[in-house]
């Protein structure tokens, strides 16, 4: 292959995040208020967002789309657009016809196809801590398949699996571990680079011992979370993980990076991981339903980290600089309001409709803003390349 042919192939590849990130943001913005509407209005529409359906879409729809955008990198149109089309068909069929065979097949099909293309990218890692990313992504994708087996009307083995809600809770702990690992790998070098410019050494960067302990503790919790009989053990492990995450964050000395709004918001998202793990652990050990505490992970941590990473990557590609404070701080504040109000609403949130609508509204506003900004930044990036 000649150099010119190789260059032309690269030119015809598109960055996956420009396609998947706006789609993920728009799904997040629409799915949550529609979930509240489906119950509050009494219409039951859209049916796919009732009960555990909204969790299914935000974990196996939204979160896996973030994984696709972040890990696929540049891809040819022959791969990117069919994969995106499969994701879109899976989302529409699940939201509007969740009990159809088509809906129950397309979702796991997207998850497995994504794993097929993403997981091998991490196989070249040498250290065991680095090798865990691929299997962890594969596990989350397989949980989408397990969710189908456990809830499908067409599955003959549903009785042999944990129910859809325990499997979903396991997937949330899987996301907790994935965000803990990848968030740490993003924050540590960025903070170290900022401090080096100031002549401040940072010895605690990746912190491999803490990272290894987190992988073991949270990896065990993923499995145990599916079995309520192990709640005391799972809760204690999550509390230990919360302490490790907090210690790791403090050792990054982020108080020396006050001028870097993007790093401060990423660190806030990382601390939401600790808060969510702590509250979930306490709920499990006290015998309480963990739904409210788990939303501190899915709203506070996933929301803050995902919006920060999407905007950070888009700004770096389009403007060669991190996003400004005027953009990231208001979004982080909206998501904090969403997380806190949903947590206060408790395990029976529809008995507190004001708090529930406040949570859904602030979440939707944050992601609508991110969607618009991503589209604008994509256009700016495209114009720069011309």
Explain the overall architecture.
The protein has 386 residues and is mainly α. The chain has one domain: Cytochrome c oxidase-like, subunit I domain (Cytochrome C Oxidase, Chain A). The chain has helices at residues 3-11, 16-40, 53-71, 77-96, 101-118, 128-131, 133-151, 164-197, 208-224, 231-250, 261-286, 291-319, 325-345, 353-385; strands spanning 14-15, 74-75. 48% of the residues are buried. Pfam families: NnrS.
Name its key features.
single chain, 386 residues, mainly alpha, Cytochrome C Oxidase, Chain A, two-stranded antiparallel sheet, 2 strands, 76% helix, 1% strand, disordered N terminus
Overall mean confidence score, pLDDT = 92
Give the overall form: globular
Contiguous low-pLDDT stretches (5 residues minimum) are: 1-10
What's the CATH architecture?
A: Up-down Bundle
The CATH topology annotation reads as: Cytochrome C Oxidase, Chain A
Give the % helix.
Answer: over 70%
Number of helices: 14
Radius of gyration from CA coordinates: 20 Å
Q: What sequence of helices (H) and strands (E) makes up the elements?
A: HEHHEHHHHHHHHHHH
> Count of DSSP E strands?
2
Structural class by sheet pairing and helices: mainly alpha
* Straight-line N-to-C gap: 26 Å
Residues in β-strands, percent: under 5%
Strand order of the largest sheet: 1-2
CATH class, named: Mainly Alpha
What is the fourth-level CATH superfamily? Cytochrome c oxidase-like, subunit I domain
Domain module count: 1
Largest sheet: 2 strands, antiparallel
